[in-house]
Amino acid sequence: MAKDMTLLWGTGSCPCWRVMIALEEKSLQGYNHKLLSFEKMEHKSQEVLDINPRGQKLIPDGPAEQALMYQRMFEGLTFYEKLNAVIYYDWYVPEGERHESALKRNKEALVTELKLWESYLQKLGSGSYLAGPSFTLADVVVFPTVGLSPERYPKLGEYYNLLKERPSVKASWPPHWLENPKGQDALKDI
């Protein structure tokens, strides 16, 4: 089955990485893949725009676990937006329109969001995934967003260390992050 699939992906893209983690989790290695260049706008090519990438995987059986998974999954999108508002501030906001107060506000919103996720993981206990004891779609959606200071956010650090060892995550790790493991300087003070 995997040999009949082709994944179009871009290195460092959290949405692409989510799909790669899901494929690895479902033991669908051996799929065809094509690395797209964001710089060359290949991700906006007709080939990509013609594909509908939606699907559902990694959903728990119980209604309570499903509800928590969906809640965390959708909240993860807010987490991703707040992270991007800090990381890509200089990219999205024209130089003449940038204000330190706006960036400070974005950073404060991200810190508040990180504290919320710390509390979620604290309530679930050590060694837990985002929606309980099993790896779910919520983890596929949120994990690529995580990776901040384990000293400031110990539960997120524990969660990050738990997931980074999963075979699906290791097999799909963005290549340019392996080459430059230091991460984003924009987040050093968060």
Automatic annotation (TrEMBL):
<feature type="domain" description="GST C-terminal">
    <location>
        <begin position="62"/>
        <end position="184"/>
    </location>
</feature>
<dbReference type="InterPro" id="IPR036282">
    <property type="entry name" value="Glutathione-S-Trfase_C_sf"/>
</dbReference>
<dbReference type="InterPro" id="IPR010987">
    <property type="entry name" value="Glutathione-S-Trfase_C-like"/>
</dbReference>
<dbReference type="InterPro" id="IPR004046">
    <property type="entry name" value="GST_C"/>
</dbReference>
<dbReference type="Pfam" id="PF14497">
    <property type="entry name" value="GST_C_3"/>
</dbReference>
<protein>
    <submittedName>
        <fullName>Glutathione S-transferase A-like</fullName>
    </submittedName>
</protein>
<dbReference type="InterPro" id="IPR036249">
    <property type="entry name" value="Thioredoxin-like_sf"/>
</dbReference>
